Predict the 3D structure of the following.
Amino acid sequence: MQKITFKSFKNKGLHTNMVTVMLWLLLASFALLIMPVSLLEWLRLADVVAAYDHFIGLVMLIAAAYFVSQVVSFLMDEAIAFLKDKRLSETIEQKVAVLDLAERALLREFFLQGSTVLTLPMNDMAVKALAASGVLQNVGNEHHYAIHGPTADYRIATKARSYLNRKILRLPAGEPNPEEMQLLLRTRPAFMGQLVQNRKHAA
């Protein structure tokens, strides 16, 4: 991790230095080409500019092309990020529209437990499907149990929250009555009891 971080800082420094050099080359070459002859003569640069004006013009074009390429690259990155974000939103919306019973029960756990982060089995089909579609996000804290398999902490993705409501999750409109609560508890994911046992053993 330290090597990657150092490399990223090094690359950032090289990029900053490159921008600085190109900027100075652009400004210097442009200034030499538009500067009045009288001023060039006063600076004793008239002969140099006259002899190398084509070279100075080439340097200015190269520096200008560099900045144009940077702008194009930035715009392309922004466009790609926008399309990825849009595609993710569409994928989440499509997934929420076709939630099965196991996936809906899993998402209800966040509301029933009143928690933004839950420890869930990574190999569970509902967990894998919701994570693959972007509805759930793995936030780390992975543990590997010999019997029940690996677990990790998950949260509902920020983009997915706007698509989830009580109607989608089939939660009561208000505070559930005893019968409604019993029904919700009976439809909880089967692995919740196993996770409780894992936590007890870990403690």
Remarks:
- Strands lie at 117-121, 136-145, 149-156.
- The chain has a mean pLDDT of 83.
